[in-house]
Design a protein that fits this description.
The chain has 13 helices and 23 strands. By secondary structure, it is an alpha/beta fold. The chain has a four-stranded mixed beta sheet. A four-stranded mixed beta sheet has the order 4-5-3-14, with helices on one face. A four-stranded mixed beta sheet has the order 6-7-9-8. The chain is globular and about 60 Å long. Bound molecules: shikimate-3-phosphate. Shikimate-3-phosphate binds next to helix 1 and helix 6.
């Protein structure tokens, strides 16, 4: 096992091939939702393949603080959630700690806003306390919620006083599944129907899973951007099977595409169309990519992905494609360094308010390796084919940056050192072990 400590940087040797098969851990978005929906359903929810990483552990800890029994979470273990019903969450005697997890905090706001007479305080780590929360607080306030925090309610710590909510029609300014899901959760206990209309479709795991739990929910609009919830239906505990996270698979897909001699199969990857933008881009680049064994597991499409190294062309990303690959942009920036031509990413200002400002951080870190990369307000331009050299790198505490830099370091002409590699555990606790095992 690779031993990590926050004070010692991790050596990342240059070169070496990558070969073999890997099963990435469970999808982070689906894991959060299975825990949350299980908590407010009636009866038991059993979750197979739940991601045993820091972010879902934060969600589980918050739920336990409100009286929900969640069995221990560990790799390979079936997780059982004893649902308390739509109105059963208790007022916690402690602060709900959301750690690094934006999904935990934002979905929790929607879950708690309508718990009448109960008071909740949500907090997070330094990164989360700097991330905008009014994008959720404003629509919930329009439904009648009472949410207060620093800077006019934008930053945690946040206080929620549960109040009666009124169903509404809400247009969200950015396509965000966290915002949409928070509204859908609040809508379950509101008086009257609620409709959320997004500018582009964001991931739809909440819609699929809420419906499977028994919610009365309808998806409409030409581009499936319009979701209506009719309150009143009771939710029933389910058996949820969580597929592998395509956002974690992305590191292996790009690694196999860009590292000379590499060939990898990533098994059991969730292929929900609202998440597969990375496959479209790899195709656009001319990558050698095959999807094998397409199947549907518990309402989500799943498959195995085989990728091998080959020549790559530059890509262009923007518009409605961005929400379908929003978490994969850091590693796609690495892919762009190996492609022929200038790759461009536009309409991605959201990256500035993720766990870090990912446009700035990737520009800084890849720049330290000699990449020709330029950041704009809402994107990046990267000139491919410029040789990378080994460097002293830093995840800047961002899990996806840590893993993207691991891929980049393989392409460099000399060895690198990565500070704060332990950030990867937020979404992929075994990443460094898998990297060692696949290296030949
Ligand atoms: C997530 C939605 C996305 C994504 C995040 C997980 C979710 O965020 O970046 O990692 O589980 O709903 P936004 O909703 O802010 O786009």
């Amino acid at each position: 096992m690779v031993q990590l400590s926050s004070s010692t940087p991790l050596p990342l040797p240059a070169g070496g091939r990558l070969r073999g098969s890997v099963r990435v851990p469970g999808d982070k978005s689906i894991s959060h939702r299975a825990l949350l929906f299980g908590a407010i359903a009636g009866g038991e929810t059993r979750i197979e393949g739940l991601l045993p990483a820091e972010d879902p552990l934060s969600t589980a800890a918050c739920l336990r603080a409100m009286g929900v029994e969640v069995s221990p979470i560990a790799a390979g273990q079936l997780v059982r959630v004893q649902g308390v019903g739509l109105d059963g969450l208790q007022e916690p005697g402690e602060v709900l700690e959301c750690g690094n997890s934006g999904t935990t905090m934002r979905l929790m706001l929607g879950l708690l806003a309508g718990r009448q007479g109960r008071h909740f305080v949500l907090n997070g780590d330094g990164s989360l306390r700097g991330r905008p929360m009014r994008r959720v607080g404003d629509p919930l306030t329009a439904m009648g919620a009472s949410i207060h925090g620093r800077s006019g309610g934008n930053f945690a710590p946040l206080a929620v006083l549960g109040r009666p909510l009124q169903g509404s029609t809400l247009h969200t300014p950015v396509a965000s599944a966290q915002v949409k899901s928070a509204i859908l959760l609040a809508a379950l206990t509101a008086r009257g129907d609620t409709t959320v209309i997004e500018p582009a479709q964001s991931r739809d795991h909440s819609e699929r899973m809420l419906r499977a739990f028994g919610a009365d929910l309808e998806v409409g609009g030409e581009a499936r951007t319009c979701v209506t919830v009719r309150p009143g239906a009771s939710l029933t505990g389910q058996h949820v099977v969580v597929p592998g996270d395509i956002s974690s698979a992305a590191f292996w897909l790009v690694a196999a595409a860009v590292i000379p001699g590499a060939e990898l199969t990533v098994e059991n990857v969730g292929l929900n169309p609202s998440r597969t933008g990375i496959l479209d881009v790899l195709e656009q680049m001319g990558a050698r990519l095959e999807v094998l064994q397409r199947r549907t597991v518990a309402g989500e499409p799943v498959g195995d992905l085989r990728v091998s190294h080959g020549p790559l062309q530059a890509f262009d990303i923007g518009g409605d494609l961005v929400p379908r690959l929003v978490d994969e942009i850091p590693v796609l920036a690495v892919a762009a360094c190996c492609a022929e031509g200038i790759s461009r990413i536009r309409d991605a200002a959201e990256l500035r308010v993720k766990e870090t400002d990912r446009l700035a951080v990737m520009t800084r870190q890849l720049g330290a390796m000699g990449a020709r990369i330029e950041a704009f307000d809402d994107g990046l331009a990267i000139t491919g084919g410029v040789p990378l050299h080994g460097a002293e790198l830093d995840s800047e505490t961002d899990h996806r940056v840590a893993m993207s830099l691991a891929v980049a370091s393989r392409l460099a002409s000399g060895d690198s050192l990565l500070h704060r590699p332990e950030a990867a555990a937020v979404s992929y606790p075994g990443f460094w072990d898998d990297l060692q095992r696949l290296s030949t």
